[in-house]
Amino acid sequence: MIIAKARAVDGPDQQFRSAEIKRRDLDTSDVLIEIKYAGICHSDIHTAHGDWGPVNYPLVPGHEIAGVVTDVGTGVSKYKVGDRVGVGCMVDSCGECDNCRKGEEQYCLKGNIPTYAGVDKYGEPTQGGYSTHIVVTEDFVVRIPDNIALDAAAPLLCAGITTYSPLHHWGAGPGKKVAVVGMGGLGHMAVKIAHAMGAEVTVLSQTLSKKEDGLQFGAAHYYATSEPETFQTLAASFDLIINTVSASIDINAYISLLTLDGTLVNVGAPAEPLPVQAFSLIGHRRSFAGSMIGGIRETQEMLDFCAEHNIAPNIEVISADQIDEAYKRVLASDVKYRFVIDTSTI
Predict the structure, then answer these.
(1) Which residues contact 283 (CB under 8 A, 6 or more apart)?
(2) Residue 179 three-state SS
(3) Beta strands of the chain (E only): which ranges?
(4) Dihedral sign, Cα of residue 258, residue 263, residue 268, residue 272
(5) What is the pLDDT of residue 271?
(6) Ranges for the Enoyl reductase (ER) domain (predicted)?
(7) Nearest-angstrom CA–CA distance, 60 and 286
(8) CATH top class, domain 2-158+313-345
């Protein structure tokens, strides 16, 4: 049994504390990773605060994990000690259902095993990346290209793949007009990736406060959704809209911005329902869809794409003692654009 240092939270209104957690001994196909950096995702905050339902506390969040292999099981063939690797939002799946066989493990019909707040195949609760070490089966580990720094790589394991997957699936590219709703951790990655894919990118944000950044990241246009004329000006304009906002918005207003056969994809996960009027969809044969991270194969593809195009998130590296303050700042939209924990401070 491996003892790892961690930062855990004991309830929705509690602050993070120092903790020790047990990591299992290596099974044949397992990889032991010394975590170097862990990104802070809005999902971590939702889960820690109990927004999405009951949580089995104490909880160690974190599913944007970048580190180095320090040991491998006897049957491991993909990785060796010293390799730079990452772990994202899931650490296992059934491997047998139709979706898993297609490489879409995130949609495992029996339910994938999340990196934290889940139960693994050994019956133990999963604990995430706000820790010094993690043990993961090799099939759910990805390789981080050499030209992506480990601290910058961490957010790609959720924010990167969460935006890459729908952009890839719905064919963002030359000749396509793509809008990104929100310019936070997810949104700024969506802008960078969609631009690199060749799409014409527009940012839809509450204000113009981040316009300079958005244009620098590759957006061709930037509009404030707090201005009513925005929705009139942009009516029926976009082939694809990626909604990254994890809060309740007037989704019908955004659907009205889709052109014929356009699709709005929700990747943000607000706790509240998003009511959709049928007439918002049927008038122009529009679609309202959802997307959740990506499979392991696609996650590796995303990392390689980002390496090829020199794409990395904009990050602010913090110590473990700053997690509670970071959560407050994320909720206040006071981060440009992703907090990353230096796990050596745990």
Answers:
(1) none
(2) strand
(3) 2-8, 17-23, 30-39, 65-72, 84-87, 90-92, 113-114, 133-137, 142-143, 177-181, 200-205, 221-224, 238-243, 258-266, 287-290, 315-318, 338-342
(4) positive
(5) 74
(6) 11-341
(7) 40
(8) alpha beta
CB 153 within 8 A of CB 144: yes
Residues of the chain with CATH 3.40.50.720: 160-290
Q: Which residues contact 219 (CB under 8 A, 6 or more apart)?
A: 180, 191, 195, 201, 202, 203
Confidence grade of residue 186 (pLDDT, cut at 50, 70, 90):
very high
Task: Please determine, for residue 248, whether its predicted confidence score (pLDDT) is greater than 90.
Answer: no
Measured in degrees and rounded to the nearest 5, phi and psi for residue 72 equal: -140, 155
Percent of the chain with pLDDT over 90: 94
Residue 308 Cα to chain centre, angstroms = 20
Q: How far is CA 248 from CA 50, 114, 251, 270, 274, in A?
A: 17, 25, 8, 6, 6
The answer to whether 211 and 204 have CB atoms below 8 angstroms apart is: no
User: What is the separation, in whole angstroms, between the first and last Cα of the chain?
Assistant: 20
CATH architecture, range 160-290: 3-Layer(aba) Sandwich (3.40)
Q: Beta 287-290 vs 315-318: how paired, if at all?
A: unpaired
d(CA 114, CA 120): 8
Residue type, 74: T
Q: Which two tokens stand for residue 333?
A: 């939209």
Q: Which residues, in sequence order, are CB contacts of 216 under 8 Å at separation 6+?
A: none
pLDDT tens-place string over residues 90-107: 999 999 999 999 999 999
17: which 2 tokens?
Answer: 């504390």
Decide if pLDDT at 274 tops 90: no
